Structure formats: structure tokens, C-alpha cells
């Protein structure tokens, strides 16, 4: 056990190296921009004030979101997803996978779980000894199951998941704005130093290097931020983008997609005034998620309102609603569809027979001429 603990401690120490590097770069950029550029290089007082105000706003939001992404711990599955003592002992005694799956199915029958493994089994983590909720995965770096795990990011030395995904998105956004603002405002002085219009001072190195660093980070962050914006619009994690979640009737990459607007609200919350602030506003508890299997999205095409049953025009009787969408029809399976169609056909035939009987009675009561 001693070598294992030493290795774990070394991994934790090494994991902070990227964070320290980003912190040092941010501190140096602050000194280079505020002191070397604004104080020693720029002569206009008005330009200094505007640059310093905008710079500090972007710097504060960048540091705040980065701090929250780093130090917000990943969220684990709640205790209801753990096996009770009797089931756990029985699970450990069993050697047959079929018997173990039967125990897991019995334990998960009342849990809000809709996804399965690739072969249709209940998702269970032997390491954490917990039934995995939907979108939950085990992180080998953190050595724990993380709710709605997206990926383990070395630049924040933390697992990005349900508890801090909004902070991570804001960190990328404010990093982009920070780098873009620095590159745009430093560009003219970069050209002046490069062409010799400004005298060679100790600020020249800082200004030249500041532009290169800001431009390099902006280009690298732009692709990453664009990719995660696409993931948010589809309500997918990085893991789900590479491996579609498997439902009872097979994989469906759009199983958790609720439409563009609702997908944004899943991450940023339903109050727009808090979207740009690194405070937790994501919807849900991280253990259960609305899916197209159990909920209908009005933004989805070719759909029918699930809350309002269809009305029969003849006698006002309520009929069972038709399938909601093609994706839902496939997820729900053919058995439920068959039942709905038979039920609707039976009701329609009853109505037709009643109408026919009424017509016959009316004909029989007419006076003969």
C-alpha cells in the first residue's frame, strides 16, 4: 500500500503543474499590460483609463470563473444509488453475471435510470460500488464516479461535470475575451515597437511577447470553446459525443436533447440574468435528466402535445395520444405503439357502430308515405 500512496501523492503534485503555469502566465500578463503598457508606454490619459477599466473587468471575470472551475469538487451519486447491505453482500457472493444483473435490476427498478451498457445491462461501478445514474462515469484521475462527467481537464486539475460545467464554459468564454482584448489593444504598440517608432525600453519585450501569447491562446481556445458550445446546443457531454448513450432500445445520440433553448437552460439555468456570472444555476440534481423518452419538447418537429389527449369529433371521448416523435417512437419500442393503435381502432369502431345504430333507428321511425 505504501508505494501506491506515494504514487498517488506524486500524481496529485504533478497535476497542479498546469494550473501553476496558467496562474503564472495570468500574473505576468497583468503586470505586462497594466505596468509596462498602460503606465510606461501609453501617453494618453483617456486611453489609459479606458484600457485599465475594461482590462480589469475581463481579468476579474476570467480569474473568478477559473477559480470556481478549479475548486468546485465533482458531485458524486447520492446514497439512493448505493446498494443496501443485504444486496451488496449477495452481489459480492454471486459469481454469475446473470445473477448479479438480476440483483442490480431489482435495486434499480425505482431509480430514474434510462441508460444501459452496450449489452443492455445495468451500469454499475465496482470501484465505487454504486449504480451509475444517467450520464455518470467513473473518472480514473479523480478515482470517483462523477455526475454528468464531461472530461478530466489537466488545465484546471479537476473533473469537469455537472457541478462545474457552467464555470468551465464561462472560463473559456472570459479567457477568449481576455486574450482578444489584450491582442487588439496591444497590436498598435506591437507594430510601433517592431518598426522602431518607439524607443527600445524594458517595456518592448513585454509588449511584443504579450501580443504573441494573447494571440496564441486565443486561437487555441477558440476551437475548444466552439466545440463545447456545439455540445451545449445538443445537450451532450464530450463522452456522449464520442459514444452515444444507450437506452433500453439501443443507442441514441440525441436522447437527452430537448431543443436548443432548453438545452442552454440545462447548463445555464432558467434565469438569464445569472448566465454570465460564475454562480451555480444549472437545472436538476445531476442524478436524473429529462429525456425524449419521457418528456416532449415543443421545439422538436413532427410532434404532438403530450399533455392534451386527442378528442373524438363524434362523441367527445378522449383517445390515447399518438406517438410523440420518431425518436420517441423508436425509444419506446413497438409494444406500446401496438397497444395504442389497437386501443384507438377499437374506440373508432365502437363510435362507428354507435353512429350506424343511430342512423338505423332514425330510418325506422320515419312515417311511411
Automatic annotation (TrEMBL):
It catalyses: L-cysteinyl-[protein] + hexadecanoyl-CoA = S-hexadecanoyl-L-cysteinyl-[protein] + CoA. Residues 293-306, 350-369 have a biased composition (Polar residues). The chain crosses the membrane at residues 16-42, 49-67, 167-191, 203-227. One of its GO terms (cellular component) is membrane. It is an enzyme of class 2 (transferase). InterPro entries: Palmitoyltrfase_DHHC, PFA4/ZDH16/20/ERF2-like. One of its GO terms (molecular function) is protein-cysteine S-palmitoyltransferase activity. Keywords: Acyltransferase, Membrane, Transferase, Transmembrane, Transmembrane helix. Pfam families: DHHC. PROSITE patterns: DHHC. Residues 291-369 are annotated as: Disordered. Its EC number is 2.3.1.225. It is a multi-pass membrane protein. It is found in: Membrane. Residues 122-242 form the Palmitoyltransferase DHHC domain. PANTHER family: PALMITOYLTRANSFERASE ZDHHC16 (PTHR12246). Belongs to the DHHC palmitoyltransferase family. The DHHC domain is required for palmitoyltransferase activity. This is Palmitoyltransferase. It comes from Chiloscyllium punctatum (Brownbanded bambooshark). The lineage of its organism: Eukaryota, Metazoa, Chordata, Craniata, Vertebrata.
